[in-house]
Amino acid sequence: MGQFIQRLKFVRFDDILAIFPMIASFFLSLFFRLLNREIWLVCEREKEARDNGYWFFKYLCEKHSEINAVYAIKKNSVDYLKVKKLGKVIEFGSFMHWLYYWCAKYNISSQKEGKPNAALCFVLEVYFGFRKNRIYLKHGIIKDAQRWIYNDISKLTMLCTAAKKEQIFIQENFGYEKSKVKLTGLCRFDNLLSPHVVKRQIVIMPTMREWLREISSETTKYEKSNLFTESEYYKVWMSLLHSELLHKILDEYDVNVLFYPHPAMQKYLSDFSSASNRIKIASSHFFDMQNLLMESSLLITDYSSIFFDFAYMNKPLIYYQFDYEKYREGQYQQGYFSYKEDGFGPICFSENELCEKVEEYVKNNFKNSILYENRSRDFYAYRDSNNCFRTFKAIQTL
């Protein structure tokens, strides 16, 4: 009950209004489902089709036409037409989304909020147990103790994992029956091994900070000010973007950089800048994250699980962890994965150290070291392009 009260403060007026289409669509669904069988409803965030949901939907449309696959996305999304070319699309959050939500044999998403209304569906699913067919493709490999995915909070039907250590960690700690945690690989990994051009390009992808996602009383618990531009996160990354040493390296070795922060931090993008014409601030509106990873030669991140995608392609990466203790306290506690013992690249704590490592990799033509190649090879359960296939088979066994 305490958790329920806590979540009430996040309820918006739009959530209350959504009660009406929710109820109306429920009664209509009693008849609609008689004419619409075997519906597999797929989505991601409301304006996205770039993650595991998109790649699984693409697989269903191309390989399993017998499945009535439907994708929910906003019409004003830059990805809308891309999905519409594949198959049936409905407006995310609309009455039709509610109707398909009630009727779907499986509700499949790479995001927990991938549903007509996240607040109402949370109550329906967790407190009333209405939807028992929720497939969580995930939007990254789980490496930390992410409390919000635990069974008592999420009550998912099936979770996809990509590594044996990850599968065991979830089975032993998240409260799910072992049979619900499937070792399939992530659907978007299917595209990573396809032929592609790699540029002399470094992509910088820092993850979010929970206390900066929305400025609140939590912000000043971890920062000296409630201004984003006064945060350690902003100052450190801005310092790197303006680093004369980094600029010198880029010019000397003819390398470019794209700075692409986590989707939750993209709203702060206009606050970032660089004096170098070799560094571009990349908006998610114009750049696809997977394309950036595939075309880049080196990744710099802090804690983002996106590094698993990069290592899947056997490319070098660097961790820049200037606020490790704060991150552990304010966001995720460490799980089974140790950056020092299991990581796929060196860890840097200062800007100079980071620039030295960047120059080291650039000089060596972005060659990965044997140590990190071996760690990467041993980590993944599969390294192929059959992740969608295994996911499909796993859902069929439910």
Summarize the structure.
The protein has 398 residues and is an alpha/beta fold. It has helices at 2-8, 13-17, 19-35, 52-63, 80-84, 95-103, 118-127, 151-154, 164-173, 189-192, 210-213, 219-222, 232-241, 244-253, 289-295, 307-312, 324-330, 339-342, 351-363, 370-379, 387-396, and strands at residues 39-43, 68-73, 88-91, 106-109, 134-136, 144-145, 158-161, 181-183, 201-204, 256-259, 279-281, 298-301, 317-320, 333-334, 347-348. The protein has two domains: 13-191 and 386-396, CDP-glycerol glycerophosphotransferase, N-terminal domain (Rossmann fold, 3-Layer(aba) Sandwich); 194-379, CDP-glycerol glycerophosphotransferase, C-terminal domain (Rossmann fold, 3-Layer(aba) Sandwich), CATH 3.40.50.12580.
Helix content: 40-55%
For the largest beta-sheet, the strand count, sense and barrel status come to: 7 strands, parallel
List how many beta strands DSSP finds: 15
Oligomer class: single chain
CA-based shape: globular
Strand order of the largest sheet: 3-2-1-4-5-7-8
Q: Which parts are unreliable, with pLDDT below 50 for 5 consecutive residues or more?
A: none
User: Mean pLDDT across all residues, rounded?
Assistant: 93
Span of the ends, CA to CA? 30 Å
